[in-house]
Amino acid sequence: MLRMLCNNNVADFSKWTAVFDSHVGTHISPDAATAGKASGVIEGNYWFLNDA
Residue 25's pLDDT band (boundaries 50, 70, 90)? Predict the structure, then answer.
């Protein structure tokens, strides 16, 4: 099974949490970048892991 691990550095964690929770459907869509800007994401890292 393929899994995605993501790490976001944010300016304000409480603001990020509120926006993240309200945009559940956009986490994997092209609108994710827009949602990230709105929530104060400074940097994001993504890794894709596959079961061995």
Answer: low
- 10 neighbors 16 (Cβ within 8 angstroms): yes
The range of the structural domain enclosing residue 12 comes to: 2-50
The tally of domains found in the chain comes to 1
Residue 6: which residues within 8 A CB-CB, separation 6 or more?
44, 45, 46, 47
Residue 22 CB partners (closer than 8 Å, separation 6+)? none
pTM of the model: 0.47
C-alpha to C-alpha distance for 40 and 19, rounded to whole angstroms: 9
